[in-house]
Specification:
about 290 residues, alpha+beta, Aminoglycoside 3'-phosphotransferase, Chain: A, domain 2
């Protein structure tokens, strides 16, 4: 038994009275967090420990509270503070079963996308990995997308990473193309914000879950491009989603490409410059197809 982990729990009185820890094991270390499986005399828990001094545990708790409306994201939080968050543990089926049920994920994510608002952004800033997502509310999706995602991330990349001048010019040419062609959707949609295979699971009781939200109100098709980028689901997912929430024709020709640039910028800042090459591939494709000058 990890005594430091044990003391971390007991010193906070995070468990109910007379509930004792009988087993714990490390699940993962990534970005600012260590994640553990915790078994007590009463139940199983999922524990996240924040290794940095920031508010990310508090934000995680707020996001789960704000998604209690959906069985897809609903999760019990038993204790939280700035250092740790103790959550419901999900027993999950193998990945193969998740892939074979992708049509169910399509239906459920389409249903999740029914929560609407008149503006884009969110009532507080959220995180993707350890990277802060600024979410100042905006009446325009194009304005939000360009200023709070594209420009903000691009400035950080230029400051923190070495990219050659020609690529800067290519990215700016694509930015101009986006500004000329991106229309505002009729409504904003609450999106999960970080749907990839590691965050999707089917519980042993058959219910599907998507964990680790990175919430904000967006064009719902931003979420679809994010899913496509990560190869999370195949055609069955999109067919199922489209049956409930029609995917616009513009998505496959335009939005699919421009929306992938944002998570690739985030991944570059989180995981390294290999993702810059993927951004350049998208830029080269759009520059050639649209005959853009740079």
């Amino acid at each position: 038994m990890n005594n430091i982990l044990k003391n971390l729990i007991y010193d906070r009185n995070a468990l109910p009275t007379r509930e004792t820890i009988i087993n714990s094991s490390l699940i993962s270390r990534n970005y600012n967090f260590e994640s553990y499986f915790l078994q007590t005399s009463k139940r199983k828990y999922f524990l996240k420990i924040n290794k940095k001094k920031d508010d990310q545990c508090l934000v995680i708790n707020r996001m789960y509270n704000d998604t209690q409306f959906s069985s897809l994201t609903k999760r019990e939080i038993y204790y939280y503070d700035q250092k740790i968050i103790l959550m419901e543990y999900f027993e999950a089926e193998k990945l193969e079963k998740q892939i074979s049920n992708q049509h169910i994920f399509g239906e459920e994510i389409a249903k999740f996308h029914t929560k609407r608002k008149s503006q884009f952004g969110f009532q507080y800033d959220t995180y993707i990995g350890s990277l802060l997502q600024e979410n100042k509310m905006s009446k325009s999706w194009k304005e939000f997308f360009l200023h709070q995602r594209f420009d903000y991330l691009f400035c950080k990349i230029k400051k923190d990473m070495s990219i050659y001048p020609e690529l800067v010019d290519k990215i700016l040419a694509v930015r101009g193309y986006i500004e000329r062609n991106l229309d505002d959707p009729s409504e904003s949609t609450l999106i999960h914000g970080d749907i990839w295979s590691g965050n999707t699971l089917i519980k042993t009781d058959g219910l599907i879950k998507i964990i680790d939200p990175a919430l904000f109100y967006a064009d719902n098709e931003y979420e679809l491009a994010y899913i496509y980028l990560n190869g999370t689901f195949g055609r069955g997912f999109y067919d199922s989603y489209n049956h409930i929430h029609q995917i616009c024709d513009d998505f496959w020709q335009f939005k699919l490409y421009i929306y992938q640039i944002i998570p690739l910028m985030q991944y570059a800042l989180l995981d390294g410059p290999i993702y810059i090459k993927e951004i350049e591939k998208i830029c080269n494709f759009l520059i050639k197809r649209e005959n853009l000058k740079y």
